[in-house]
Design goal:
Number of strands of chain A: 12
Number of domains of chain B: 1
CATH superfamily of the largest domain in chain A: Histidine kinase-like ATPase, C-terminal domain
CATH superfamily of chain B: Response regulator
Oligomer: heterodimer
CATH architecture of chain B: 3-Layer(aba) Sandwich
Low-confidence stretches of chain B: 1-5
Order of helices and strands of chain A: HHHEEHHHEEEHHEHHEEHEEHEE
Strand order of the largest sheet of chain B: 2-1-3-4-5
Radius of gyration of chain A: 65 Å
Mean pLDDT of chain B: 87
Largest sheet of chain B: 5 strands, parallel
Helix content of chain B: 25-40%
Number of strands of chain B: 5
Radius of gyration of chain B: 15 Å
Number of helices of chain A: 12
CATH topology of chain B: Rossmann fold
Chain lengths: 527, 155
C-alpha cells in the first residue's frame, strides 16, 4: 500500500465522522425546511378557511416557538451527535487507528512496534495479543537472522573446505607416482590421477592393484606395508615387486605413512610407490659390469704373472747354461766364443729386466696401495741409501733440501719416482763429479719437486719423447736401463693428479720437475 | 744338532729339469756340502717325505733337515705340498723354503699363512743364484739349529 493510498484511506476513515455529521445536518435542514413548508401550507390553508389574523399570528407564533424549540433540540442532538462522534472516535477509531498504524509499522518491518494503553477491555486483549504477536515475530526474526548468519558461516566453511579439497586434489595429482590412502581393511579411500592411471580404484583393495591378488598378501616374500605400518606406527619404506593385472612385474620403492586419530591409533595409511625398475636394471647392469671388470682385471693380473713367469723360466736357463759353457769350457773357447756367450748372458739379463719393467708399468693402476701422509725427506733418504754404492762409485755429490714436506700419497710408488730420477741423474752423468740437487717449491695447492743435475742435458726435441715407454736417448751400451723408467714416473705422477716435465739444455744439465697436489686426491683406481 | 753338522739333508722339489741342473750346480758352486735329494713333482715329494709309493722303503728317503719347494709344479703344486707338510705331525717341524721365479702376492700370502719359513725368488742371473745358494747353505745348514733328531719328541 503506498503512502498516498494510505493517507486517502485514513482520511476517508477520519472523515467518516464529519460526513456522518454533515449527513445529520443536511437531513435536519431538510426536515426543517419540510416542517416550515408544512407550516406555511397549514397557515395558508388556515387563512383560506378564514382564520383570524390573531389566530394566524398565534399559530405563527406557536409555530415559530415550536421551530425554535425544535432548533434547540436539533442543536442539542447535533451536539450530542458531535459528542458521540468524539467519544466514538476516542473509544473506537483511535485504537483502531493505533492498531492500523502498528500493523503498518510491523508490515514495514519494524518489529519493535508495541501498542500501549488502550481503553476497552477487548481492545486491551487485542492489544496484548498484538504485542505478543510482535514479540514472537521479533523472536522469529532474530532466530531467522541468527539462522541466516549460521547458514552464511556454514556456506563459508563449505567454500573453504571445497578450496582445501581442491588444493589437496591438485597436490596429490601433481605427484608423478601412484598415491593413495588405504584404510585398515586395505580399501582405497583417496587416490590421485597417477594411481587411477595404474588401475587403482576407489573402494578397491591395495593388494588387487599391487600384487594382482584377491586377498591380502601373506608376507612370505615381502612384508605387508599396511600391516607393518599399523603395527609399528611409523613411516616405512620397502623395496617391493609389484604385479599389474597382466602379471607384468615392476620394482618399486613403496612408502607407507600412518594417519593417526586423536588417540594416536593408526586408522589409515598413505601409500606412495616409486617405480625403480629402470634404476634396478641399471644397478644390475652396473653390478654385472663391475663383476666382469673385476674378472677381466683378475684375468689380466693372471696373464701378467703367467707371462712374466713363463718368460723368465727359459731366460734363467739360457743365462745359466751360457754361463756354464763359459765356465766349464773357457779353455776350448777360441776367438769370440767367450764374447758371444757374454752377449747371450747380457741379453738374457736385459730381457729379464724388461719383463720386470713391463710388469711394473702394467700393474700401476691395478693395485691400490694404501695412501697415507708420507715424509718425503725420509723417502729421499731411503733412495739415497739404496744407491749408496752407485753414488760412491760415481763419486757423486748429493744435496737434499731441508724443507721437504709431508705429502699424502702412495709411498711405494713415490719412492719409485725418486729412485728413478735420482738413479738416472747419476747413471747418465758425464762429469767426473756428478752433482745432484733435490728440492721443493711450495705452491698454493701443490708441491713442486725438482731434481737438478749437472749431466749432459737433453735436447728440447726429445723432451716429450723420453717419457714414452721404451724410448731412450743415446746408445744402448752407454747407459743401463730398458727405457721404461721415465714412463713409469710419468704414470705414477699422473695417477696422483700431478704433472711431470723438465728443463734442460745440452751441456747445461737437466732439471726434472714433478708436482704432487696438497689436498688429498687419490690416484685413479681401477678395480 | 751340533754346529757344523753336515748331515742335514736338503730335499728339492723341482719339475723343470733345466732348473734342477742349475740348482744342483749352484749349490755345488756355493760349496754347500749338504746332500741334495731331488724329486720331480709334488706327489713325489710327499711320497719321499711320508715314505710311500716308490719311497716306501725309507732308506732311499732319509728325513731332510730342509725342504726347498718350487711353487709351480704339476699334479700337486708347492703350496699344496707345503700344506700337507705343515699339517703332518712329524713333518711340520722341518723348515720349508718356497722357491719361485715370479713373485705373486697371493702365493706369498698363502705360503706364509701355511707356515713356510722363507720365500725366495730365483734370480735369472746365475751368479746371483749361487750366492743365494751359499746363503741358504750357511743359514739353514749351519747357523740354524735343527729340530732334535729324537723322533719321540715329535708330537
Amino acid at each position: 500500500m503506498t503512502n498516498n493510498q494510505n493517507s486517502i484511506h485514513s482520511s476517508i476513515k477520519n472523515n467518516f465522522v464529519i460526513i456522518f455529521f454533515l449527513g445529520i445536518v443536511i437531513w435536519s435542514i431538510f426536515i426543517y425546511i419540510a416542517l416550515i413548508k408544512t407550516l406555511k401550507n397549514e397557515l395558508i390553508s388556515l387563512e383560506k378557511i378564514g382564520a383570524t389574523t390573531e389566530v394566524l399570528e398565534q399559530v405563527n407564533h406557536l409555530a415559530r416557538e415550536l421551530l425554535s424549540q425544535m432548533s434547540g433540540f436539533l442543536i442539542l442532538i447535533l451536539l450530542g451527535v458531535l459528542v458521540l462522534a468524539w467519544l466514538f472516535s476516542k473509544i473506537f477509531i483511535s485504537p483502531i487507528k493505533k492498531f492500523s498504524n502498528a500493523v503498518e509499522a510491523v508490515a514495514k518491518g519494524n518489529l519493535d512496534t508495541k501498542i500501549d494503553t488502550v481503553n476497552l477491555k477487548e481492545f486491551g486483549r487485542l492489544a496484548d495479543s498484538f504485542n505478543r504477536m510482535t514479540e514472537n515475530l521479533q523472536k522469529i526474526t532474530v532466530s531467522r537472522e541468527l539462522l541466516l548468519k549460521e547458514i552464511k558461516k556454514r556456506e563459508e566453511a563449505d567454500m573453504a573446505l571445497k578450496e582445501q579439497n581442491n588444493f589437496l586434489h591438485s597436490t596429490i595429482n601433481s605427484f608423478k607416482y601412484p598415491f593413495y590412502v588405504v584404510n585398515k581393511d586395505y580399501a582405497v579411500e583417496l587416490l590421485n590421477a597417477a594411481a587411477i592411471k595404474k588401475g587403482v580404484t576407489l573402494g578397491g583393495h591395495c593388494y588387487e592393484f599391487t600384487h594382482n591378488r584377491q586377498s591380502p598378501c601373506e608376507g612370505e616374500t615381502e612384508r605387508c606395508l599396511l600391516r607393518t605400518v599399523l603395527k609399528e606406527k611409523r613411516s616405512v619404506m620397502f623395496e617391493h615387486v609389484h604385479y599389474d593385472s597382466k602379471g607384468d612385474q615392476s620394482f618399486v620403492e613403496v612408502y607407507g605413512d600412518p594417519i593417526f586419530d586423536e588417540n594416536d591409533n593408526v586408522v589409515k595409511m598413505i601409500e606412495y610407490s616409486i617405480n625403480i625398475t629402470e634404476r634396478k636394471l641399471a644397478e644390475a647392469k652396473m653390478q654385472d659390469l663391475m663383476r666382469s671388470l673385476k674378472l677381466k682385471n683378475k684375468e689380466l693380473d693372471n696373464f701378467c704373472y703367467i707371462v712374466s713367469h713363463d718368460l723368465k723360466e727359459p731366460l734363467r736357463a739360457i743365462y745359466a747354461f751360457a754361463r756354464f759353457v763359459e765356465t766349464d769350457y773357457s779353455e776350448s773357447l777360441e776367438g769370440k766364443g767367450k764374447y758371444y756367450l757374454e752377449r747371450i748372458e747380457a741379453n738374457a739379463l736385459r730381457m729379464q729386466q724388461l719383463i720386470e719393467d713391463i710388469l711394473e708399468v702394467s700393474s700401476i693402476g691395478y693395485d691400490y696401495n694404501l695412501l697415507k701422509d708420507v715424509n718425503i725427506r725420509d723417502v729421499v733418504n731411503d733412495v739415497i741409501l739404496r744407491f749408496e754404492y752407485l753414488i760412491r762409485q760415481k763419486n757423486a755429490g748429493v744435496v737434499i733440501a731441508d724443507n721437504l714436506p709431508v705429502v699424502f700419497c702412495d709411498r711405494v710408488r713415490i719412492t719409485e719416482v725418486f729412485a728413478n730420477l735420482i738413479s738416472n741423474a747419476i747413471k747418465f752423468s758425464d762429469k767426473d763429479i756428478p752433482y745432484l740437487e733435490i728440492g721443493v717449491n711450495e705452491k698454493n695447492d701443490r708441491y713442486e719437486f725438482f731434481i737438478r743435475d749437472n749431466g749432459p742435458g737433453i735436447e728440447k726435441e726429445y723432451f716429450e719423447k723420453i717419457f714414452k715407454i721404451f724410448e731412450r736417448l743415446g746408445r744402448r751400451e752407454d747407459y743401463e736401463g730398458t727405457g721404461v723408467g721415465l714412463s713409469i714416473v710419468k704414470k705414477i705422477i699422473e695417477m696422483h693428479k700431478g704433472e711431470v716435465w723438465l728443463e734442460s739444455q745440452p751441456g747445461k744439465g737437466t732439471i726434472f720437475y714433478f708436482t704432487l697436489p696438497k689436498k688429498n686426491t687419490q690416484p685413479e683406481t681401477v678395480l | 744338532m751340533a754346529l757344523g753338522n753336515n748331515t742335514v739333508n736338503i730335499l728339492l722339489a723341482e719339475d723343470n729339469p733345466d732348473d734342477v741342473e742349475i740348482t744342483k750346480r749352484a749349490f755345488q758352486q756355493a760349496k754347500v756340502i749338504n746332500r741334495l735329494y731331488i724329486v720331480r713333482d709334488g706327489k713325489e715329494a710327499l711320497d719321499f717325505l711320508l715314505h710311500q709309493g716308490e719311497y716306501e722303503d725309507g732308506l732311499k728317503a732319509p728325513a731332510p733337515g730342509l725342504i726347498l719347494l718350487d711353487i709351480n709344479m704339476p699334479k700337486i703344486n708347492g703350496i699344496e705340498v707345503l700344506k700337507t707338510i705343515k699339517t703332518d705331525k712329524s713333518l711340520k717341524y722341518i723348515p720349508v723354503i718356497m722357491l719361485t721365479i715370479s713373485r705373486k702376492d697371493e702365493d706369498i700370502i698363502k705360503s706364509y699363512g701355511l707356515g713356510c719359513n722363507s720365500f725366495i725368488q730365483k734370480p735369472v742371473d746365475f751368479d746371483k743364484f749361487v750366492s743365494v745358494a751359499k746363503e741358504i747353505g750357511l743359514y739353514w745348514g749351519i747357523f740354524n739349529t735343527q729340530f732334535p733328531e729324537d723322533r719321540s719328541l715329535r708330537k
